[in-house]
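Service request form, structural biology core

Requester: graduate student, group of Dr. S.
Request type: structure prediction, single chain
Budget code: on file
Notes: please return the result as C-alpha cells.

Sequence provided:
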Amino acid sequence: SYINSVKYFPNYKESTITIEANCTGCETLTAKASFDGKTVGEVSAEYTGSSMVLTMKLNETHLWELGRGGLYDLELTYGEDKVYSYFGLRNVWMDGMKFMLNGKSVFQRLVLDQGFYPDGIYTAKSEEDLINDVKISMGLGFNGARLHQKVFEPRFLYHCDRLGYMVWGEQGNWGLNHAKIDALHQFLPEWIEAVERDFNHPSIIGWCPFNETWDLNGNR
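Core staff response, request fulfilled:
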C-alpha cells in the first residue's frame, strides 16, 4: 500500500486545504498539517476504490505572501507509507486586467530567468546558486520570474515557495512547429508530466507552454 500522487487545492477564504489522493492498496489515508511545529489540522479517509478527496479545516490561517512565503508542513500516512510534504495557503485569479493574490491586486515585476550557470550550463553547481538567483532578483526589487525555456529543478521551486517568489512554469520548445502533429506527440506528454510534477508549488502562478514558436514556417 502506498501513495501514488496527491494534488492540493487550498482555499484561503475558508482556511482549508483539499487533498486529492491517488493510492494503491486498501488503507486509511491520514493527513496532518502543522505550522512552525504546531499541529493545526488533521483529517482521515478510507480507501473507496477510487481517488480519495479530503478537506481539512486549518485551526490557524497563515497566508502565503510575497517576500515572506509561509508554508504549512503536511504529513501523509497510508498504511506503512509516509510522505512529508508542504503547501501554501494561496489562491490566484484574474480580475479583469488585475492579477489577484489572496484577494489583493499584485503587479508582477518579473525577470526572465534562463536558468543558466557558467559552471554547469543548465545545472546549478550548488544549492546556494539556486537560492542566490532568487535572493538577487528580490534584492533588485523583483517579486518573481518567468522561467525560460526549461523545466526548472524541484529544489529551485521549493526555495521560491519558501521565500515567497512568484514564477511562471515553462517548457523548452524553441523552434517547435506546434502546427504539426508529430511535434505535439513529442511535446504534450512531456508538458503534461511537468505540470503534474509541479502542480502543488504555491510559487507557480502561471504556465507558459509555448514560447519562441512564432511565425515558424508561416505558422503563428
